[in-house]
Prior knowledge:
The protein is α+β, with helices and mostly antiparallel strands. The chain has ten helices and 16 strands.
Amino acid sequence: xxxRLSAIVLALLLLPxxxxxxxxxxxxxxxxxxxxxxLDEKGKALVARNADKPFVPxxxxxxxxxxxxxxxxxxxxxxxxxxxxxxxxxxxxxxGGDPFLxxxxxALLAPKLIKATGKAPFAGMVIxxxxxxxxxxxxxIENTGEAYDALNSALAVNFNTIHAVRKGxxxxxxxxxTPITPLAVSQFRKRARNGRSRISLTQTPGVSVKYAGELxxxxxxxxxxxxxxxxxxxxxxxxxKPVYVHNQSRTLSTIVNQMLIGSNNYIANQIFxxxxxxxxxxxVSLKKSLKVANEIFDKHDIGDxxxxxxxxxxxxxNKFTARGLAKLLHHFAPHSKLLRRTRAGSRYKxxxxxxxxxxxGFAKTSKNGTVRFVISLxxxxxxxxxxxxxxxxxxx
Length: 396
């Protein structure tokens, strides 16, 4: 009787180990060469496969940018765009790198600008984009027409893209909220095929800035004002005081949430560049942001485990170790609700390249509560990442 009781007690003691072993075996069978790390709330490894091998994070890199944004800028931070009017009634617009200056935001902005300046026509518009150096380039961003290759800018609208419908030479906006402009029409005639599409403005910084000015002028007209003269690039005259400062209607936490869910490269790098300029002063530069990022990584003892060259994950030169990312996830945990959610309640971010399938975040498990996880695969379908996550949710 005593020996039987001892056997039952021993089996109960071994049960968690057997359950974990089952999950490990399933993970090994699903992804024999994959990288999988799962840590419980105390940092104990529940699953560890190739956990110290560097991997390319792809868009999982955006978790890093979100973390840096919360650390340096804060959840309630708001991007600003400043407006000035000289004695000839020329309107000057100084861009502040707002990543969410979309049509709906311009619709909010324009009436407030007209209220501050009056309805008399503006003699012209000058866009001051000097907050971003003209030669700024993000590693991994290429000169294509794809939306994910949109150029970063001090002043850009609709994520520096144009969404329209072309039928022969006729071009109309694909969005009810966005007026069509002359530059949008000319760009679509040159670069877009027939049908609905979205193109990025990557050719030259001047093109994107001019489009921003044209679209702003269209919203000023809707608000009861007008711009009679030319729209051009330039600088705000020294000593001129702003007549209106527009605070982005969305807080940084809202923008970060949209960046993570939509996996928007443009937003990610606008935020990443602001991190450096906010702490070290403008204008923005990749060098400043990388300096601030590396100082924060060193502070959290992950400097050797997290190597980034930009904020979106579009560059293959970004490299992490799973342990380094899992450690950073510990510090990002208070902001985990900014990530996309599974039916089981897990929070996650995906990353996808040719030959790269990543998934990381916080898994809700049946026995260990919320755990941190990192998955990186170099082969197999994208859905395999989620089969591994479900195995973690149900088996740990």
